[in-house]
Amino acid sequence: MRIELSIVTALLVAGAASAQEKTISFPSAVSFETGDTWAYKGRKFRLFGVQACLRNTIYRAPDGAEADCGLQSIGSLAALFSTGSIGCQPVGTAKDEATFVVCAAQVGSATIDVGTALISSGAAFAATFPSGAPVSAAYAVAETTARENGSGLWAGRFTHPVSALLGEH
Questions:
Q1: How far is CA 55 from the centre of its chain?
Q2: How far is CA 103 from CA 5, 47, 49, 118, 161, in A?
Q3: DSSP secondary structure letter of residue 134
Q4: How far apart are CA 142 and CA 24, in angstroms?
Q5: Is residue 52 pLDDT above 90, yes or no?
Q6: Host H or E run for residue 124
Q7: Which of the four, 36, 108, 127, 156, has the lowest number of CB atoms within 10 Å?
Q8: Residues 114/104, Cβ–Cβ less than 8 Å
Q9: Averaged over 79-102, what is the pLDDT?
Q10: 107's torsion region: left (phi>0), alpha (psi -120 to 50) or beta?
Q11: Whole-model pTM above 0.85?
C-alpha cells in the first residue's frame, strides 16, 4: 500500500510539474555530472527513474581491465546526446533542486526513450524508492533484460549502484 501511495504521489508531482513547464531541448554541449545528471544554462537536470553507475566505483571488464564505473555511464549518456536531438519533459524536482526529466532522443528517424535506451543497453539501472521498489516498472524490466543478456556493464563485474545507495553491498 505504501509503495502504491508513493507511486501515486510521484505521478501527481509529475503531472503538476509537466503542466508548468514545456519540453526542453538540449544541445550535445551540456556538462555531464553523472550518467544520469547534467547541467545546462546554470540548471541541473536528472533522468527520472534512472540510476547511473556511481563515480569512483570499479567496473571490471570480462578481460580483467578496470575502469571507473561512473565514467562508463557518463560516456553512454554523452553518446546519446551526441547522436541527435534530445527533448526532455520536466516531471518534478529532486531534493538537491535538480529538475527530474523524462527524455526522448531523435536518432535518425526513430524517437527513443533515453532512460530505456541507457538501461536496456546496460549503461544505467532502474532507480528505486528507499523501500527497494522500482520507480518505473518498465525500467525494471529493461534492467532485468539487460542483466540476463549480459549487455553493457552487465558483461563485467561492478557494485550495483542501487545496492550501494541502499547500503546493501
A1: 14
A2: 25, 7, 11, 11, 21
A3: B
A4: 25
A5: yes
A6: strand 124-126
A7: 108
A8: yes
A9: 92
A10: beta
A11: no
Identify the H or E element spanning 59.
strand 58-60
166, three cell numbers: 541502499
Phi, psi for residue 107 in degrees, rounded to 5: -120, 105
Grid cell locating 90 = 520536466
Burial environment of residue 160 by CB neighbours within 10 A (0 to 12, 13 to 18, 19 or more): buried
Q: If you search the block for the grid coordinates 532485468, which residue do you land on? A: 144
**Residue 64 amino acid letter:** G
Write down all domains in the chain, each with its CATH number in brackets.
Answer: 2-155 (2.40.50.90)
- Averaged pLDDT score across all residues of the chain: 86
Q: How many helices (H) and strands (E) does the chain have?
A: 5, 11
Q: What local confidence, expressed as pLDDT, does residue 9 receive?
A: 36
